[in-house]
Amino acid sequence: MQSRYELFVGLRYAWAKRSNHFISFISVTSMLGIGLGVAALVVVLSVMNGFQKELRSRILGVASHVQIVGLGTPLRNWSSVADQALRNPSVAAAAPYVMAQGLLSFRHSVQGTMVRGIVPESEDRVADVGSHMRAGRMQDLRPGEFGIVLGNELAVSLGAKIGDRVVVIAPQGQVTAAGILPRLRQFRVVGVFEVGMYEYDAGLAFIHLQDAQKLYRLGESVSGIRLRLAELFDAPSVARQLARAIDDEVYVTDWTRSHANFFRAVQIEKRVMFIILLLIVAVAAFNIVSTLVMAVTDKRADIAILRTLGSAPADIMKIFMIQGALIGVIGTLVGVLLGVAVAINVDVIVPAIEQAFGIQFLAKDVYYISDLPSDLQWSDVVTIALTAFALSLAATVYPSLRAAAMNPAEALRYE
Predict the structure, then answer these.
(1) Which of 144, 201, 263, 273 is the S-S candidate for 153 at Cβ 3.0 to 4.6 Å?
(2) Do residues 376 and 341 touch, judged by C-beta distance below 8 A?
(3) DSSP assignment, residue 128?
(4) Could you tell me the pLDDT band of residue 208, with boundaries at 50, 70 and 90?
(5) % helix / strand / coil in the chain, to the nearest 5?
(6) Euclidean distance between CA atoms 30 and 331, whole angstroms
């Protein structure tokens, strides 16, 4: 019991009614400040995680986990390359594709786009575009029927709808007696998709693989092979394994390289927001310094009596560190509970605020992600809680050292 008296006295100082109410006010303010800062950090990082997850799902709804392309030339023996890739236990599915530039013409409108030739049945196994169809189906792309599926923004720009016939103009010309003429073909619109990424919705069109091979005169060759992995975060390591395992001269890339700018931007924003909001916690935590400095001044006589009874300076230091740490712990716990509650219910709280005040935080005609997504990750919560507690503990060092260095004779002289 004697070895634990620092804890007893420290807790008693923290909870006892004070003659100086200003010290109690600063203590409560410090707790609330730490709590609000921690709660803000938990909510903001959860929303940033939600945006990152939403962005990843939308990008990978069209892009693949891993792509295998020829080195400067189309893949001729693509079926053999696909078989070699599927031998890797991490590869779940493979699909050939043709990717080329083209011009789409409809009535008086002309739009540049990327034309992707696919096999709908295989494409469904490596991408999720089929689940983002606004009209029609991917399965309506049949070889020889020259159907085309447009991105929603692209369809709006052209003014085309289901059943209309658009002209696809290939940039590779054909030599005739009259000179070099562009190669073109009429396609019927059989579907419209919208994945929520402007890059795809305004600049991508799908046709059947065989129709693309005919239009771009590739014969039996393809531009490359798209792979879906069992675990998307294994993409970099799997890409390296495939580059060593495949016999042909190919280039293997993964989604972390092809769309690194998007995810790097979100990650940088997340780190910056963490630092900025951590300053709120730091300011609240260092209010503990003011609280303890005044507490030390208020308890000069008590400190002197404890020293004369045999307490070591380290024991006095522990008493005030315990008192400050308790403020930090309570503030951190309140902030974590509040932050987790808000982060889990963002999808309910935000619409309620929008409806109550008649506002919209993310307008649908401006932002493609019109709802605030939230993805609570407990690793972030633990990091925030430990950081807040460390800042609170650091704020107790100076006042505790000052209390430990107090001379008992000087403190009791005027008592």
Answers:
(1) 201
(2) no
(3) -
(4) very high
(5) 55, 20, 25
(6) 8
More confident residue, 61 or 327: 327
Q: What is the 3-state secondary structure (H, E, C) of 293-356?
A: HHHHHHCHHHHHHHHHCCCCHHHHHHHHHHHHHHHHHHHHHHHHHHHHHHHHCHHHHHHHHHHH
Q: Hey, what amino acid is at 310? A: G
Please give the average per-residue pLDDT across 320-344, as a whole number. 87
Instruction: Measure the CA–CA gap between 141 and 120, rounded to whole angstroms.
Output: 7
Q: What angle do CA 134, 137, 362 make, to 5 degrees?
A: 20
Average pLDDT rounded to a whole number, residues 269-295 = 80
The predicted model gives 125-147 an average pLDDT of: 89
Q: Please give the average per-residue pLDDT across 72-101, as a whole number.
A: 90
Q: What is the predicted pLDDT for the residue at 367?
A: 60
Q: Classify residue 88 by its DSSP letter.
A: S
The domain ranges of the chain are: 2-57+262-412, 64-257
Backbone phi, psi, residue 181, to 5°: -115, 145
Q: How far apart are CA 391 and CA 394, in angstroms?
A: 5
Residue 18, token pair as written in the block: 């004070």
Write down the residue that tokens 């963002």 correspond to: 346
Residue 14, pLDDT > 60, answer no
173 C-beta neighbours (distance < 10 Å), count: 12
**Distance (Å, rounded) from C-alpha 58 to C-alpha 49?**
14
Take residue 279 and report the two structure tokens written for it: 């300053």
What single DSSP character describes residue 75? Answer: B
> In one letter, which amino acid is 213?
Q
Q: Is the pLDDT of residue 340 over 80?
A: yes
Both tokens assigned to 29: 């303010």
Nearest to 113 by CA among 151, 87, 75: 151
* Residues 44 and 50 sit within 8 Å (Cβ to Cβ): no
Contacts of 253 (CB under 8 A, 6+ apart): 66, 67, 69, 239
Give the 3-state secondary structure of residue 222.
Answer: strand
| Residues 6+ away with beta carbon under 8 Å from 300 | 406, 411
- CA nearest to 331, candidates 7, 12, 42, 37: 37
